[in-house]
Structure formats: structure tokens, C-alpha cells
Amino acid sequence: MASDIYQEAYQREKLLRKAAEQLLEDKSRELFASFEELQLAHQNMKENQKLMVQSEKMASLGVLSAGVAHEINNPVGFIYSNFCSMSEGLGNISKFILSMNKMISEASNIAMVRAKWTEQIQQYDIEYLMMDFPSLCEETIDGLERVKQIVADLKSFAREDSGAMDPVNVNECLRAAVNILSNQTKYHATVDVEYGDIPKTLGYFGKLNQVFTNLIANANQAVRENGHIEIATHFVSNWIEVSVKDNGHGIAQENLEQLFTPFFTTKPVGEGTGLGLSISHGFIKEHDGEIVVESTLGVGTTFTVRLPVKEIV
Ligand SMILES: Nc1ncnc2c1ncn2[C@@H]1O[C@H](COP(=O)(O)OP(=O)(O)O)[C@@H](O)[C@H]1O
Ligand SMILES: [Mg+2]
Prior knowledge:
The chain has 313 residues and is an alpha+beta fold. The chain folds into two domains: 1-158; 160-313, Histidine kinase-like ATPase, C-terminal domain (Heat Shock Protein 90, 2-Layer Sandwich). Helix content is 64%, strand content 15%. The protein has seven helices and seven strands; from the N terminus they run H-H-H-E-H-E-E-H-E-E-H-H-E-E. It has helices spanning 2-106, 110-123, 126-158, 170-185, 205-222, 253-256, 276-286, and strands at residues 166-168, 189-194, 201-203, 227-236, 239-246, 290-296, 300-308. It has a five-stranded mixed beta sheet. It has a two-stranded antiparallel ribbon with strand order 1-3. Helix 1 (2-106) crosses helix 4 (170-185). It is elongated. Bound molecules: adenosine-5'-diphosphate and magnesium ion.
């Protein structure tokens, strides 16, 4: 009798234990599945974020490239025309030299050579060409340097950073951003830049360049005619500060809190993606820095990026 009770209790306990074990196994399996899901979601999010950064860059590049094309077109135009003039002039000079060469080797009378020399110098416009060539060359070299600079600045903008931080000259990085935007700002704004005496720091050149480009582009979009954009770099107790100040329309109080939220924009489609500041914020955080804003409606806005100086080892 007693053994029956024990037997029953034992069976019940066994069943319960089995059920508990099953439950535990089910739960662990569920937990593992949701962990995998979470990992996948995290991976997806990371990929989406990368795409977002890229798409913001491409959108800015779209706006930039129209101006850049214009900016390159101008020097290329005069370099082409200078080369045409120089090529024509060179034809004249070689005709003159060949003809004088022939004359000198054949003529016996020096007076005749002299007369021919004077005549041909006039005929081939040699004096004018000699005067014109140096300035044509100078202008051409100048134009080529401008094109070279534009291409270098574009490369800075498109630069993909490698995994590790490199020594960065923040002034140089800022200068590339100012330059690349100059064809957009020049029509309605004056841009003053004060490059302070700042040390190099470890960072990502491409990412910082993208931050500065976005801040200047925003300032430029905020100002109307007689716009004034003041940019400065300072070194303040081991921090590098980059400020971009504009006299544009300013930011309303209720918008200030949302500035760094992805996709927050007050601009019409095609002008803004709303990603610039959120991406910039992320990039500056990666540098252990901060980005702050001060704005008064109708007066203007100042964005300041602060980067701690990291020792280059
Ligand atoms: N210098 C500025 N002056 C006024 N408003 C600004 C300025 N910079 C940013 N903003 C505001 O912040 C919003 C978000 O900026 P951003 O993230 O760069 O996206 P986007 O420029 O594509 O709109 C802008 O739409 C604008 O309303
Ligand atoms: Mg922007």
C-alpha cells in the first residue's frame, strides 16, 4: 500500500521533472533563437547605418558636383584656348627659325640676313609672341593648379577612412571643405576663415571633412543675400574647436532638440535629407568629441565642434 503511494509520488515527481526539463529546454531554445534574431537585427542595423551615411554623402555630392563641374569648366576653358594660341604661335616661331636657318646657311651677305631677320620678325609677330608666351604659360599653370586643387578637394570628400585613426591636420581638412563649397557660397555669402594654430590629432580625415562640409552647407542654406559665414579653429586647453557661425534665419526653439535626430529636416525634398547632423554627431562621438549649437531666430546660428587632442604615438 505504502509502496503504491511512493510509486505514484515517484512517478508524479518524475513527470514533473521531465516537464520542467522540457520547459527549460524549450525556453533555452527560444532564448537562443531570439538572441540570433537580435544579432541579425543588429547586423542589419549596422549595414543600414552604413548605407545611410553613404546616401547622405552621395546626396551632398550630387549638390556639390554641379558647382564643381562649373568650377572646373572655367579653367579648362581658358587652358584650352591658351594652348590653341600657343600652338599657333609655336608654328610661327618654328617657321621663322627654319626660314632664318636656311637664309643664314645660304646667304653670303650679312646685310641681307639682317634685313630678312627684321622683316620676318614682323611677319611672324615674333616680338608679340615672346611677350605673350610667359603670361599664357603662367595663366595656364595657374588654371591647372586650380583644377588639381578641386580634384584633390573632391577626393578628400570622397575619401574612405581606413580602420585606424590617422594623424589629421584639422585646418587642412576644414580648408578642403571650405574650398569644395566655395562655388556655392560665393554667390550670396562672404566666408571668412581664421585658421588657428592647432596641433595635429588622431582622427578620421574623411569623416571630419564630411562633418565640416555639412556644417558649412547648412550655414550656406540658412543665409540669404549678404550672408556672412565665419569659420574659425582654436586650440583651447587641449581641445580643438571648430566653429561655423552664420547670420542666417536661425533655428526655432522647438526644433533645437530634434536637430540631431535622423531624417529631421525643415528643407524641401531634394535640398535636405535630414541626415547631415545625425551623421555628424555620430562621427564626432567616434572622436570622443562633441558638437554643440547656439541659435537665435532671425539672428543666426553657431555650431561648434570640439575634439580632444589625441597624442600621436
Ligand atoms: N546653420 C543652420 N541654420 C539654421 N538651421 C539649421 C542650420 N543647420 C541645421 N539647421 C536645421 O537643422 C536641420 C537638420 O540639418 P541636417 O541634419 O544637416 O539635415 P538637412 O540639412 O539635410 O536638412 C535642417 O533642416 C535645418 O532646419
Ligand atoms: Mg545638412
